[in-house]
Design goal:
This protein is of the alpha/beta class and 95 residues long. It has one domain: 3-Layer(aba) Sandwich (Rossmann fold). The chain is built from four helices and four strands, in the order βαβαβαβα. The protein is globular.
Length: 95
């Protein structure tokens, strides 16, 4: 499963990727706005928007022209616990 995380804390970027890897997912994390962001997002299976730490411009850019099959989840907090809950719901660890 491929995941794109928009927003969040820059210092937590590695932690976000490691947690996604534990759930068997490939993750791209965009904590800051970049002009080429839309092209680099691609068509993930799941897009997570950490709404408290992201600008409106980033949200609009991420949602502009995304694939309809992409599931979008919004979370007001950008904590690791919040990401863990989202992943448990959408990409549970298979034992």
């Amino acid at each position: 499963m491929s995941i794109v995380i928009i927003g969040g804390n820059e210092c937590m970027e590695r932690e976000y990727k490691n947690l996604c890897k534990k759930h068997g997912c490939r993750a791209k994390v965009f904590c800051k706005f970049k002009n080429s962001m839309r092209d680099r997002i691609g068509s993930p299976d799941l897009m997570i928007l950490f709404t408290h730490t992201v600008s409106h411009k980033m949200v609009y850019s991420a949602l502009a022209g995304f694939d309809e099959s992409t599931k979008v989840v919004r979370s007001h907090t950008s904590s690791l616990a919040s990401l863990r809950e989202i992943l448990m719901e959408h990409a549970p660890i298979s034992a």
